[in-house]
Amino acid sequence: MASVDKPTQQPRGRGSAVWLYFKDVEGKENSAACLACKKEVLRNTGSTGSMRRHIESCHPIQFKELLNTEADRAKPKCKDGPQPLKQQKLSTMFAQANAQEWSDSHPRSVAIDRKILRFIVLDSQPFSVVEGEGFRDLLKEACPQYRLKSTRFYHDKLETLYEEIKLQVQDEIDRLRDFGFTCDLWSDGQLALMSFTIHSITPDFERKQLLLCVKPFTDAHTGLNISAVFSTTLGEWGIGLEQVSLLLRDGASNMKLAGELLKVPSAHCAAHKLNLVVKDSISGHRGLKTILDKARSIVGHFHHSVTAQANLKTLQLQLKLPTHSLVQDVDTRWNSTLAMLRRINEQEEAFSVYRTRHRPIEILTDNESDVSKKAVKLLEIFEVFTLEVSRETASISCILPMVKVSLEHLQQVDCFGITYLRDDLVKGLTQRFSDEKKSHHHIVATMLDPRFRLDFFDEEQRNFAKAELVKAMNEILRETSLPTVDGDTAIDEDLSDVSIETEPQTESQPQQLSMSALFEKSSTSSAAAATLRDLSRAGTLLPVSNRGNAMDKASTSI
């Protein structure tokens, strides 16, 4: 920044202290030249407002000097006796207040410290972000009174904030009774992390999801070691094993063994099961594998060439196609394969023209294109299923109904030429979710969900479901010393006596593939479809999926 020596004497006839930093421009009555940067500033005759604004915006050091000079001039003169006080301008008072740096204990400074910590946590930023020139410039412009601290300060402050949030979480846990747990283990070869999230419901029927911890896992990934870490974590938070209603895990044998060693009910994550159903069905057929290999080759060609991407973009505009980028699938996420096929089908006309004008890439044949489009239609239901069980508000009550409507949907889709894929998807869905049909938790949760009740059970399943609900009710009644239930008459009456008003759907609404629409189409779900539109996601609030970023949940209390 340019510097300037303040003149010892103010120009004659210039009463404002601003003229200490300006001089007249010869031959230009309405201009003044800045002594710091030599820039000419236009001004109205008799006014120094534009000159003052120039100093404030371009020369902060000189502006601070100017404020001090004006403050000194405003003080009473004692040379020849008491002098009348000169009233300070409001603009000067506010400018002086804004120029003063806050102390570290100032309430606004403390609040900004917390916001910076929240920014670091939510956006997974390194502590060194506060040393970046851009970040410092931004904060200086937005709040010049705030003093930016060192990385060590924010690191130490985060430890304090963690203890504060931990006390809040512990207070929440102490007010709850029973818990569902989601547990997952990640490893990248260098670091292994294990997360624990609890799900519960308050006495006021408010749903709670709290991330207890994400901790390093340094021992061998055996069921015994996993169960030991789980038990230790429960003890740290004062939770007993008898309070664990369900442990949701992946299908790995070590996680399953951990649940058995802990002697707590456990279930396989529904999203993981869906991923296995689709991947197994796709990988078992050579024709579809050939299509996927071609699709990956096409995507790779455009991803590795800036020129090819530019040419594709031009063709998209000329052919009036959506200007979407191509998607490369990822082995661990089946829905990325679906997204890749969608884009390949969408842009097939552009590929044909590109092949003629630019480079002879291998594209799908007419028959392969037809198979690809039908495969997308078949797989769409699994995308809806996956999104539904991955919602934070999802519970296990939706699993059995979604399996049923998904099987019905698969039978209705035109799959001529890929019947083998449809049959494998049906087989995989049926086999992988067979345990849920006999699961006490899934059955009771579905019956208690006002959207579903008994609508998705056949006669044999209904009788079994009623018996399971009676068993669960009697367990609770025995704990409270109340008479137990004998028979299922009361259950029949309670489940059938439902009167819910719903708003009629307008004919103009577009029909999209969704679980709501599928429930309405299901031949056995007329009552469930009626309740689905207006009821909140009530019912048993046990978790259904352990997918999602645990760090997202960690930040909700900060």
From TrEMBL:
Keywords: Metal-binding, Nucleus, Transcription, Transcription regulation, Zinc, Zinc-finger
A cellular component term, taken from the record's GO annotations: nucleus
Cited InterPro entries: RNaseH-like_sf, Znf_BED, ZnF_BED_domain_contain, Znf_C2H2_sf
Source taxon at top rank: Eukaryota
Alphabetical GO biological process terms: post-embryonic development
Domain BED-type: 13-66
Cross-referenced Pfam families: zf-BED
Bilayer-crossing regions: none
Compartments reported by the entry: Nucleus
Any one GO molecular-function label of the UniProt entry: DNA binding
PROSITE patterns, per the entry: ZF_BED (PS50808)
Main location: nucleus
Family annotation (Gene3D superfamilies): Zinc finger, BED domain-containing
PANTHER family, alphabetized: ZINC FINGER BED DOMAIN-CONTAINING PROTEIN 39, ZINC FINGER BED DOMAIN-CONTAINING PROTEIN 4
UniProt name for this protein: BED-type domain-containing protein
